Amino acid sequence: MALDGRGITVLGGGIGGLAVALALRARGADVIVLEQAEALTEVGAGLQISPNGFRVIEALGLAQALAARACRARAVSLRDHRRGSEVLRLDLARLPADQGYFFVHRADLVDLLATAARAAGIQVRLLQRAAKVVPGARPVVEMANGDRLESEILIGADGLQSVARLALNGVIAPFFTRQVAWRAVVPNLVGHPPEARVHMGPGRHVVSYPLRDGRMVNLVAAEERGRWTAEGWHLRDDAANLRAAFAGFGGDTATLLGAVEAPGLWGLYRHPVARRWHGGGVALLGDAAHPTLPFMAQGANMALEDAWALAACLDSGTGEGAFERYQALRRDRCVKVVEAADGNAWKYHLRNPLLRGAAHLALGLAGRVVPGRMLRQFDWIYGYDVTKAVRG
After folding, report:
1. What is the dihedral of CA 302, 152, 60, 58, to 10 degrees?
2. Facing residues of 123 across strands?
3. 3-state SS string over 322-338?
4. Rg (Cα) of the chain, in Å, rounded?
5. Which of 209, 326, 348, 384 is catalytic?
């Protein structure tokens, strides 16, 4: 195999970074993961692993371990915000039997991947803050403490503020989408079933789904807002502000919002998909290459797909050709997902009551008459299998 004994450094110990480290190690590479945090933990929130992402988890040999920590999803339910009544139900049982869809706490998935990485002999170094990446014959990462680390290949899985992306693409300022989002995890006070509920209201919506054996519920509440809000997932807001913004939401949503204590708040910014994903022995994946808004629940899944594709491409050849194959395989698909997420929020945020009522009526009718067709519109996402699209 082309990767036997090759030294590879991965910047970032999140989902994409740990997944690519595992995929590379399985192909014989010597892998080091550099993570700036003091522990491999994630901000407390949930995520959805759809079938396309779960196929990578399966290929890494972690399917049973993930299923033991996650809730298997049964449906996606679109609901009216005021009463909580169902508008459209997408029955995930209609997916083929091999297409698993799960809700998992982000911290649980990171812990699962990190445990597997360490067991595989991958070095995971904490408190390693990268200041600069220098592409070249042997790419270099310069650390904030003055250390320099060379390797044969350097992978930037270092998120929105990626120094690897900066090295390859320069500074490209993002723009505020005029939307913000709160997130929180609360006790399951309403017997929330294993389904993702999207509660649609004028200029805003709330997504909810269960975590950790159904004991907790993950909440993401998005609102259109004209004034600027800082980017970042580590800001905190007063829960009273969240409840005021969604005061018109009734049913179970009001109960769950009432249980929120210290929600995270972040401004939603659009970063363009990177023009260059590789160069000088450096490659990008996940948010470093293609940040996406959360309205398709595909951020983690795209990172998992990237991880498998990059490892397989590197194992099937050497030099820039392997990197070029990776970008050619991934970029168009990721652009399509990013654009789909960009266009999704307005569908939930219709302000005109008559237009909203007509749209909800049409959705409900389509769901009853052609339920299979409503679900098949996502085949291009869920049906994709990166482990078959590229082998290495």
Report:
1. 30
2. 32
3. HHHHHHHHHHHHHHHHH
4. 21
5. 209
| Backbone torsion region of residue 146, taken as left when φ is above 0, otherwise alpha when ψ lies between -120 and 50, otherwise beta | left
E strands, 169-293, where? 175-187, 195-201, 204-211, 216-224, 264-270, 278-279, 282-284
* Beta partners for residue 211, in sequence order: 216
Query: Residues 175-193: pLDDT tens digits?
Result: 888 889 999 999 999 999 9
pTM of the predicted protein model: 0.93
Query: What mean pLDDT value characterizes the chain?
Result: 89
Please indicate whether residue 384 is annotated as part of the active site. no
Give pLDDT tens digits for 357-366. 555 555 555 5
Q: Give whole-number Cα distances, 319 to 153, 315, 349, 371, in Å.
A: 10, 11, 47, 47
Which residues have a Cβ under 8 Å from the Cβ of 240 and sit 6 or more positions away?
none
Give which of 33, 53, 35 is closest to 303, Cα–Cα: 53
Give the per-residue pLDDT at 270.
Answer: 86
Q: How far is CA 242 from the centre of its chain?
A: 23
Query: Quick one: pLDDT at residue 352?
Result: 45
Residue with token string 């039997």 = 97
